[in-house]
């Protein structure tokens, strides 16, 4: 039997099965050939990817630490700013109080007004006629009693009293600050609501009234207006002769 006859004698299903098996074997071989490079590629790239992920994680942790540090610094700066604002406010309040004490700021508030006028009694030819006149000593006494009663600001005929104010007799006038004043003399004071009651209860003021008003007839009148306007000191606050004394720490050298 020839080869052609033998091929014709093989059933058709065997031929179909053989072709199918041959094709399946080819596909399996092709898949195995492509699987090798893919596995090698994955294995080779896994280590760099892990390292990159670790580096990114470390960077993220570092950024978190930086953020927390910046938040802490911002909070500290805000707290320091609040402290600085409070310090500045305190200093401004002290400066304002110093300006008021120095008479550099005009004020308005509750207070009293005292007016002092010369006596109308006839002068004794053999006596001292100055006792019938309002003098610098009388004004100084009134001012001192007002300070002691709690007055916060005082003016005499519009001249604001300051720690450096002098009240001196100059002939028929009275020198207050740099102004020559003539009677009648109005002493204006701003202070607590009970300033008049405090002044009236002062033994010094009572003695002044007895010694000058009752004995010599000086006319003293007191008014309590609803509001008292206090002018600011109009003179200079620069000391021409006085100088601040250096502290002992500034005098002592580094060697003691």
Would you give an account of this structure?
This protein has 256 residues and is of the alpha+beta class. It folds into two domains: 3-99; 107-229, Alpha-Beta Plaits (2-Layer Sandwich), CATH 3.30.70.1880. The chain is 53% helix and 16% strand. It has six helices and ten strands.
What are the SSEs and their pairings?
Layout: H1 3-9, H2 12-101, E1 107-109, E2 111-117, H3 136-149, E3 153-156, E4 159-160, E5 167-170, E6 173-176, E7 179-181, E8 185-190, H4 195-200, H5 203-216, E9 219-223, E10 228-230, H6 248-251
Antiparallel strand pairs: 1-10, 2-8, 2-9, 3-4, 3-8, 5-6, 6-7
Helix pairs in contact: 3-5
Overall shape: it is: rod-shaped
Q: Give the overall pLDDT as a whole number.
A: 80
Number of separate domains: 2
Oligomer: single chain
Number of strands: 10
Summarize this structure as a short list of keywords or feature phrases.
256 residues; alpha+beta; Alpha-Beta Plaits; five-stranded antiparallel sheet
Brief summary of the model shown:
By secondary structure, the chain is of the alpha+beta class. It is 53% helix and 16% strand. The protein has six helices and ten strands, in the order ααββαββββββααββα.
